[in-house]
Write a structure and sequence with these properties.
One of its GO terms (biological process) is methylation. By secondary structure, the chain is an alpha/beta fold. It is built from eight helices and 15 strands.
């Protein structure tokens, strides 16, 4: 499981994260009752939002993170004169107990999408064990969207190294795998080929299932090449305060969007019918994605494209030590 470095935490509060930071600060200020509210920050890093909560008047703040950056947080709390009201703990939230329940739990332990590592199970656990009755979760809700995109620059690294080599080598076995690799990538509004459709709404005061599935349907309205799909989320931290990493929203570089490549690009024409099913499942501490795509012609002839893809298929196959060494018995 990934622990971020202190350098990485700095990137999360710097200029590339200004929209996010300002929204969280506004949500905290609006929700917090000075001299009364107890705040728990999950994924505190060096304690930036914990420091803000204390500055805004929280009675006490519990700042939790498995990273050693929490020790720097203690220094920052002392430098800002709030060390008597912040308790830093280098642990996972699922492993702690608190002397009191929190009135506000604030977190951003998502990745580019909300389905990331232990995010959802951690929020469910904290809500049940650590949040006071009537307490507030920040964020309250994430809404996830997807659309087909024209993205030749994002697609090229999946195929060009294996397709274009100067030595006549057949590298197709690698290419078949790398088109299953999903990754972060910025999409501009003009690259979105269809109206975005809803994948899921994650309402954190009630969510229990860390997994999700959705089937989306589109009819192509233009003739253009599609390279795959892009996914993003809108967040509502508290009612009326939030932000979006949609292609049409102001760009937030720490998020961008998630790109799901297709096995091959597809030249869409007006009237093509596209169906895509997404499935995401938490396997231990890692999410596994499946995305299947059907592109049917408007005249009902044979399908234009059928793809069945999975994130685990991007990995090199695991072999036993005996298999690995089977060709090593030479002098």
């Amino acid at each position: 499981m990934q622990n971020y470095s202190l350098f990485a935490f700095g990137g999360m509060i710097g200029p590339n994260s200004k929209i996010r930071v300002e929204a969280y600060a506004k949500a905290l200020r609006q929700t917090l009752v000075p001299e009364h509210s107890v705040v728990l920050e999950i994924g505190t890093g060096a304690g930036f939002f914990a420091l803000l909560a204390a500055k805004f008047g929280a009675r006490h703040v519990y700042a939790i993170d498995p990273s050693p950056s929490v020790h720097v947080g203690r220094e920052l709390a002392k430098a800002n004169g709030v060390d008597d009201r912040i308790t830093f703990m280098q642990q996972r939230s699922t492993d702690i107990t608190l002397p009191e329940r929190a009135d506000i739990i604030v977190s951003d332990i998502r990745g580019v999408l909300p389905w990331f590592q232990h995010h959802i199970p951690s929020i469910v656990d904290a809500r049940e064990r650590l949040l006071a009755p009537g307490g507030v979760l920040i964020p309250e809700q994430d809404t996830v969207w997807a659309a087909m995109v024209h993205a030749p620059k994002l697609y090229a690294p999946h195929v060009v190294p294996w397709d274009d080599n100067a030595y006549g080598l057949d590298l197709s076995a690698a290419r078949r795998r790398t088109t299953n690799h999903l990754h972060k990538g910025h999409i501009k509004p003009e690259q979105v080929l269809v109206e975005p459709q809803l994948i899921a709404t994650l309402h954190y005061p009630t969510i229990t299932d860390p997994n999700a599935q959705a089937t989306l349907h589109w009819t192509a309205a233009q003739t253009r090449r599609a390279h795959g799909l892009s996914m993003w989320f809108d967040t509502e931290l508290v009612p009326g305060i939030g932000y979006s990493n949609a292609p049409s929203a102001p760009h937030i570089p720490i998020y961008s969007q998630t790109f799901f490549p297709w096995t091959e690009p597809v030249d869409l024409v007006e009237g093509d019918r596209i169906a895509v099913t997404f499935r995401v499942h938490l396997m231990q501490q890692r999410y596994v994605w499946h995305w299947t795509t059907c592109v049917d012609r408007p005249d009902g002839r044979e399908p234009k494209a059928r793809f069945a893809q999975a994130s685990f298929a991007a990995d090199a196959p695991q072999v036993s030590a005996s298999e690995s060494n089977s060709h090593d018995d030479y002098e």
